[in-house]
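User: Working on a comparison across species. This one is DUF8119 domain-containing protein from Natronococcus jeotgali DSM 18795. Can you predict its structure so I can line it up against the others?
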Amino acid sequence: MRSNESITMDRSDRRGSPENQPLLESRYRRLVAYLRFNRDSILVDVLLVSAWILLASGVAQWFSLPRWFFYIVVFVGIVVYTRTTVPWSRPYRSPD
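Assistant: Here's the predicted structure for DUF8119 domain-containing protein from Natronococcus jeotgali DSM 18795:
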């Protein structure tokens, strides 16, 4: 791949086997491709986890719940969210 080419895959363009994905040598280009490919998922994840933390903290303050209970609720909510969502993926093959 030439150095000025860029990866323009979206999430619907995933291929079944890693052999069909482009090989990227540069760590910087791999990072940029990864962040571009997963941009929407990262944004949604950050927004939903932030909303969950704000909601849980508001409810905990409203009902004067102990701080340890708030931390448990936040932790369990984030674990459930990560177990039910699709993981981020790589749009490339790494030489490493």
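For your comparison, note: The mean pLDDT is 85.

User: Helpful, thanks.
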